[in-house]
Design a protein that fits this description.
The chain has 391 residues and is of the alpha/beta class. It contains 12 helices and 24 strands. It has helices spanning 57-66, 82-85, 88-94, 106-114, 181-196, 200-210, 229-241, 258-272, 287-294, 313-325, 344-350, 371-389, and strands at 4-7, 10-12, 15-17, 22-23, 27-28, 33-35, 38-41, 46-49, 74-76, 99-102, 121-123, 129-131, 136-141, 151-155, 160-164, 217-220, 245-252, 276-281, 297-303, 306-307, 310-311, 331-338, 358-359, 363-366. The strands form 6 sheets. Strands 1-2-7-8-9-10-11 form a 7-stranded mixed beta sheet, with helices on one face. Strands 17, 18, 19, 22, 23 and 24 form a 6-stranded parallel beta sheet that branches. Strand 7 (38-41) and strand 8 form a beta hairpin. It is elongated, with a radius of gyration of 24 Å.
């Protein structure tokens, strides 16, 4: 990608990573990603907002060269994570007069993680502004979105909000702006589920604050720019604030077929009672899809056989993942089969301490499920359907 003009004196200078398929050695990237960096030039001074992942350093430098950037007054680090800040040492080396601006909490992170000289950094307070001449940059602290040091940068003259990870999407595209809302909504929802959902109570406060700003463009650090900011802000309000949907996420693993029989029966019983189900076989499921399904689901059902009297490791992993993602799920339960002993209930509940849920009575059977066990699954489906009607 070459530099692309957003507004007069404001250019996209980031990089699209078409081929990356894993983030943080954990998160699948089926559609690649981008590392968005923005160059803002005023009548007197200039600022680079965020950099790129170290793997894309040469592309960022080439883009700056293409714009004829010989000197740079400020570099804005909205977030210390390396996919945004990893190129800072090269940028600061190339532009020795540039001052690096970040939050007070970000400063020691950049020193510690990237060996940025402390005397190159100037910490900015919440609401602080700098002048670029005919342009102004305002800094909005947004702690715990999704790290403690995050901030947003606002360009009031053009009503552009540079949000770093907030409102982002892992999506490699040649489009500078959102053109396919369905595709971007799906990518942004998945991104929210995997990265932002654990911090939704903090995000709620930031959404309220941003309501006081006039915003024409939202320019995140991953994915395309939003020309209709309400599109993504309304989506976040729904994900963060609204009650969960009439949906069950049923994630299971079955070694010898008994748990699978229980899953099939429970799914049919739920659907017959008007409950939507999203089913995931944990032996092959995309964990990003599982996380995305949890965004609006009212109930989590984990299906697992006993392995050495405890949960199957894949079910334990799904419970651990759900616990750290902290969805707004209201109910949870367990179904499964065991051969000679079971601590499934105690173990799974112990893996979900962060969830503010009502644990419904599990259905655990010895060996193959029988008629009485299927009847218990019907009662569980009836209970779930009734709880959902109370939402």
């Amino acid at each position: 990608m070459h530099p692309r003009e957003i507004r007069r004196g404001v250019h996209y200078v980031g990089a699209v990573d078409w081929d990356r398929r894993l983030f943080d050695e954990l998160i699948p990237l089926p559609d690649g990603t981008s590392y968005n960096s923005y160059m803002v030039r005023g009548s007197e001074k200039s600022a680079l907002i965020d950099t790129v992942d170290p793997a894309m350093t040469d592309l960022l430098l080439a883009n700056l060269d293409s714009l004829g950037i010989k000197t740079l007054d400020y570099v804005i680090a909205n977030h210390a994570e390396q996919d945004h800040s990893g190129t800072l040492p090269r940028i600061l080396g190339r532009y020795p007069m540039a001052k690096l601006l970040c939050t007070p909490k970000c400063q020691p992170m950049l020193v510690g993680m990237l060996a940025v000289p402390d005397d190159r950094i100037m910490a900015v307070e919440d609401g602080a502004k700098i002048s670029l001449g005919d342009r102004t940059l305002e800094f909005i602290h947004a702690p715990w979105v999704h790290w403690p040091e995050t901030m947003l940068t606002y360009l009031p003259e053009e009503k552009i909000l540079f949000t770093c990870d907030l409102f982002g999407s892992h999506l490699a595209t040649s489009d500078l702006y959102v053109t396919d809302e369905g595709q971007v909504f799906e990518s942004a929802r998945r991104y929210y589920a995997e990265i932002m959902m654990p911090f939704r109570t903090n995000i709620e406060k930031h959404l309220e604050r941003l309501g006081g700003y006039a915003i024409d463009l939202i320019a995140p650090s991953h994915g395309p720019i939003y020309q209709e900011p309400e599109f993504i802000m309304d989506a976040y309000r729904h994900w963060v604030l609204d009650s969960p949907d009439n949906t069950v996420v049923l994630a299971y693993v079955s070694m010898h077929g008994s748990t699978k029989l229980m899953v099939k029966h429970l799914v049919a019983a739920l659907v017959a009672r008007g409950v939507r189900v999203q089913q995931f076989d944990l032996s092959s499921a995309d964990i990003g899809k599982l996380a995305e399904a949890l965004v609006d689901a009212a109930t989590l059902v984990l299906g697992t056989p006993a392995m050495l009297a405890g949960a199957h490791p894949l079910a334990a992993y799904a419970a651990f993942l759900t616990n750290i993602l902290r969805p707004k799920t209201r109910f949870a339960t367990i179904i499964g089969s065991f051969g000679w002993g079971s601590r499934l209930k105690e173990q799974i509940i112990g893996l979900l301490p962060n969830l503010k849920v009502e644990f419904l009575e599990p259905v655990l059977v010895k060996g193959l499920p029988r008629e009485t066990d299927f009847a218990a699954l019907d009662r569980l489906a009836e209970t779930i359907a009734a709880r959902h009607k109370e939402l």
